[in-house]
DNA sequence: CACTTATACGGTACTCAGTACCAGACGGTA
DNA sequence: TACCGTCTGGTACTGAGTACCGTATAAGTG
């Protein structure tokens, strides 16, 4: 009975081998052999060989969903950006693992497709949440979709910059990118008013928000 | 020597069988048997079983690229929307084939992932084009990415509505959606001016544009 | 303690996608 | 006739993923 659980040893062995020989040159048998477990155990822990690369995707999806579920409708936009920040933090916390995954997804088309499909799931959660927030009518469907896509795009932009080593402080860049992105939508909310919203605070956005709202007389377009 | 080329007979046989038994329940052998060709011929015509569903994806990518390549920089935004319109027209022209593909991609996760990866390729072309148009600097990278994502999102929104039978006149809806989407970006171009650009013409956008530009004194934010 | 049950693991055998390689059929050309 | 490029079919192989079975250990129950 080994100390580490099988699932963890499998991911470690898999990433090692992918790094050494490449993804296609590594078989599932190779992975299970190095991990010291049976082949059946692999497919019990992961639905497919590709899934080893994204071990806790489901968990991440779940935490996003719960973050959005417990959101005050008055702070809907903040909730979405905070949920996106959750994803960013997760990858940054992974460190070298995230970098290894990035190298793999860039070189193996199948993995790239898989990752894109994964981000689309985040986007779906965002879209449904924003659409509910906008009332759920058919006239707001496109707007919700655009906003969700924009948030995910901005997030991915910053994340990729960090993965490439171009963003030493990703969270600050994230704040700036999100401010730009959300402002895109807030600017047209009331056409002649041109209330350009740009918040660039560090972390506790929900703490700053009440003060901002008081300042603007409770008509600010930042939900 | 049969009348129809092997490739076409394979796609027809494949879509028939997918419709009858489902994607996973259909083997490549089933397809080649119905098409009356050898198994080797299948993998010469298509790189994989999934690729039968998207027979002319490469062609479409090529026509988009050439549409963008021969674009006047002064009409960059129009070029992007027109390139997106190319995709829409392609699917609409496919008719029942596009509907069958939609049914498949909705029910088979692997195909859905594949399709999403495909749209991401369009988005990449758009992003690179817009980025070049904006000067290619690092400060405009996010903006280009957001714009490309927005155009693709708006296109997909209308396309999916048509695929669901909710858009009897997709091109008109496309015009409206694109106008909304592009306006999102044009509105912030010059902050105090609030020149809200919304063109909702039928088809010949490039024909209307010179007049519009004259009207605005050649400072309009619509590239 | 003995007994049952659940759970995790390993092994075997199978299906099927995808690849590599070889061999024949066909049309055009000298 | 002989040569050549191209399209085609057949055979054999690798490897992912599934189904099923047997077993060991741990946890609960009398």
Automatic annotation (TrEMBL), chains A, B:
Presence of keyword DNA-binding: yes
Domain HTH tetR-type: 4-64
Record-linked InterPro entries: DNA-bd_HTH_TetR-type_CS (IPR023772), Homeodomain-like_sf (IPR009057), HTH-type_TetR-like_transc_reg (IPR050109), HTH_TetR (IPR001647), MftR_C (IPR041347)
Keywords recorded for this protein, A-Z: DNA-binding
DNA-binding region in chain numbering: 27-46
SUPFAM superfamilies associated with the record: Homeodomain-like
The UniProt record lists the keyword DNA-binding: yes
PROSITE patterns in UniProt: HTH_TETR_1 (PS01081), HTH_TETR_2 (PS50977)
Protein name: TetR family transcriptional regulator
Organism encoding this protein: Amycolatopsis ultiminotia
